[in-house]
């Protein structure tokens, strides 16, 4: 008889474990609330369903590549997206308050007669169960208030997600153009240094040829020294 009890317990445990794989909610979202969340990177900021790949740093990268990499890899975008999905799950919890609830109870018992009794009988195994269903008809608007609160919090989370994405994109764009400006400034400084060096060499040559004064040479030398 004990084997029967063991099989019942195992069957109940198996049902609980496999509940998440039910045909009603294979994706773990029985109330379908995740559809109200934005994608990790909202549409319009990059190509839909485009994979997040690594940037090839062996060649110059474009602004589009920088923006794409920042949106894919910045931890802020992942964090706010996860927060929005959590809030969507809370919306599902609020919706579940409108569903009926089921309560199942299973009890068992095993009785054995005294082995020294003259009227000894076989062990008696008893198994009983009950299933109760309940539904809340009216709660003075508490469920409606909780549902509306969950909806507004989800809208707020989605707005925060869009704001974070825009902030990350703006920061990446500003950093890209700042790098470009620094590169241009460095190139201009190198060109000015080369021009000053050529000017100094020309002034030195004129001085050695006797067609220039020491002051001209010194002036060109000073200008070159200031740029090096």
Task: Describe the protein in words.
- With 228 residues, the chain is mainly α.
- The protein has a domain at 29-54 and 66-99 and 147-226.
- It is built from 5 helices and 2 strands; from the N terminus they run αααββαα.
- It has helices at residues 2-17, 63-73, 75-96, 142-208, 214-227, and strands at residues 101-111, 124-134.
- A two-stranded antiparallel sheet has the order 1-2.
- α3 runs antiparallel to α4 and α4 runs antiparallel to α5.
- Mean pLDDT is 77; it is low at 1-25.
Key descriptive features of the protein:
single chain; 228 residues; mainly alpha; two-stranded antiparallel sheet; 2 strands
Quick overview:
This protein is mainly alpha-helical. The protein has helices at 2-17, 63-73, 75-96, 142-208, 214-227; strands at residues 101-111, 124-134.
Counted by DSSP, the helix tally is 5
Task: Please give the number of β-strands.
Answer: 2
Q: How are the strands of the largest sheet arranged?
A: 1-2
The average pLDDT score comes to: 77
Sequence stretches where pLDDT stays below 50 over 5 or more residues: 1-25
């Amino acid at each position: 008889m004990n084997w029967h009890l063991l099989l019942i317990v195992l069957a109940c445990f198996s049902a609980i474990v496999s509940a998440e794989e039910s045909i009603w909610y294979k994706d773990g979202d029985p109330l379908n609330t995740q559809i109200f969340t934005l994608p990790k990177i909202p549409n319009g900021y990059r190509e839909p369903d485009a994979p997040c790949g690594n940037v090839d740093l062996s060649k110059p990268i474009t602004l589009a590549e920088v923006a794409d990499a920042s949106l894919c890899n910045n931890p802020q975008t992942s964090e706010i997206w996860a927060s929005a999905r959590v809030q969507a799950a809370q919306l599902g919890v609020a919706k579940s308050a409108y569903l009926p609830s089921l309560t199942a109870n299973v009890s068992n018992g095993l009785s054995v007669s005294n082995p020294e009794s003259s009227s000894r009988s076989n062990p008696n195994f008893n198994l009983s169960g009950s299933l109760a269903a309940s539904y809340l008809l009216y709660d003075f608007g508490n469920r409606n208030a909780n549902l509306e609160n969950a909806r507004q919090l989800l809208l707020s989370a989605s707005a925060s997600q869009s704001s974070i994405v825009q902030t990350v994109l703006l920061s990446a764009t500003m950093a890209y153009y700042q790098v470009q400006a620094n590169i241009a400034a460095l190139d201009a400084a190198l060109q000015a240094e080369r021009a000053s060096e050529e000017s100094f060499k020309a002034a030195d040559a004129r001085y050695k040829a006797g067609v220039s004064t020491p002051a001209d040479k010194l002036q060109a030398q000073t200008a070159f020294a200031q740029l090096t």
